[in-house]
Amino acid sequence: MYFSFDFKSSMLLIFVLHAAVFSMLLLSKAIQNEHKPSYWLSAFIFFSGLYISPFMLGYAGWYSRQPYRDILFYFPFQQLFLLPPVLYIYVKTLLDESFTFNPRHFLHFLPWFGYFVYSLIVFVTDKAVLDYAYFYADGMDKDFSSWYQITGFISLATYSILCLRSYFTYKELSLQTVSFADAIMFGWIKRFLIALLMILILRGLFFILNPEWDQFGKKFWYYLSFSILVYYISISGYVNAIQSIFTLKTASVLAVSSPINEQEESQLLKTASFIDIDIEPWKNKLEALMINEKIYENPTLTLVDVAQQMETSPKRVSQIINQGYEMNFNDFVNLYRTLAVIEQIKSGNHSLLTLLAIAFECGFNSKSTFNRAFKKHTKLTPKEYLSQNYY
């Protein structure tokens, strides 16, 4: 069995084997922990390995030799209509633990199903009906047809936008409904989306630099770059196999007291459409809770907690904060936590306790959140504030 282990084929072979191993590891973790995102990330890594395979095999000499050529041309390596929706569902399940895959989500996979049927017809016609390569008479792999590659690129761009939209919706809803938003805005999803955008940009650049996708040309560097990004995604995704404890469905209930669907998510943020009320009495009541009851000391304080104590709806509290203070709920509560820390410093407690201990007493739940909120509201880091005022 001839296989040329040159630099290009060997490099890509490493990444193909890596994709196979990590897809199995993620699948195992998904089964053991009943972790939905890991199922979808496993599928993405597996299909990414298939995506790289034609060029790994091509540089090894298999695509140019028989009998491999007649077999490999009919195998659907490049799942360009499958990778983008798999990525999208992964992001949805990661950001929203209440997300469930239902029949309408199969619509995302209709283009892939159509291309699969087309590939199956080509295979059956050439191998069983005509018994000669009618569809491959030109010696070109159909997976690298310009129409398929361009349409696949458009699909990836579209689903990348949908992934970003889901992330920003999640981010805005968390800021509007919980006081610990930083704790649930885990960094992995940000890095994943950056890697996804890099894949999209790389593919766009190589379309311009080397449009002849049915020839090997300079595409090795694109597939090597793609492999490195997938390598990063698979390792980081495995290590950070977590899922948000915050659900968009829960956020919807907190914000408007009734469930919503995906199309209505963005409407939660349009507080300007709320019914006009006299804000000042409500502001006084809210400030009394913050100052007298010190409810900000609860590190898991939510919009519904405040609404219950004010004997009103979460929607009304959100309106009061948005319009009366021009802040979101998260920033509003962290402002009072920051002011409480400053009061502790003025009282000299920083000489008895560490700043972090004081911050935890005031309701912050992490050092990074404390530092970020303190600088946002004072324009200084905690250490800078101490050095300028107390040393």
Automatic annotation (TrEMBL):
<feature type="transmembrane region" description="Helical">
    <location>
        <begin position="111"/>
        <end position="135"/>
    </location>
</feature>
<dbReference type="InterPro" id="IPR018060">
    <property type="entry name" value="HTH_AraC"/>
</dbReference>
<feature type="transmembrane region" description="Helical">
    <location>
        <begin position="71"/>
        <end position="91"/>
    </location>
</feature>
<feature type="transmembrane region" description="Helical">
    <location>
        <begin position="147"/>
        <end position="168"/>
    </location>
</feature>
<keyword id="KW-0805">Transcription regulation</keyword>
<dbReference type="GO" id="GO:0003700">
    <property type="term" value="F:DNA-binding transcription factor activity"/>
</dbReference>
<keyword id="KW-0238">DNA-binding</keyword>
<feature type="transmembrane region" description="Helical">
    <location>
        <begin position="188"/>
        <end position="208"/>
    </location>
</feature>
<keyword id="KW-1133">Transmembrane helix</keyword>
<feature type="transmembrane region" description="Helical">
    <location>
        <begin position="38"/>
        <end position="59"/>
    </location>
</feature>
<keyword id="KW-0472">Membrane</keyword>
<feature type="domain" description="HTH araC/xylS-type">
    <location>
        <begin position="285"/>
        <end position="388"/>
    </location>
</feature>
<keyword id="KW-0804">Transcription</keyword>
<dbReference type="InterPro" id="IPR009057">
    <property type="entry name" value="Homeodomain-like_sf"/>
</dbReference>
<feature type="transmembrane region" description="Helical">
    <location>
        <begin position="220"/>
        <end position="239"/>
    </location>
</feature>
<dbReference type="GO" id="GO:0043565">
    <property type="term" value="F:sequence-specific DNA binding"/>
</dbReference>
<dbReference type="Pfam" id="PF12833">
    <property type="entry name" value="HTH_18"/>
</dbReference>
<protein>
    <submittedName>
        <fullName>AraC family transcriptional regulator</fullName>
    </submittedName>
</protein>
<keyword id="KW-0812">Transmembrane</keyword>
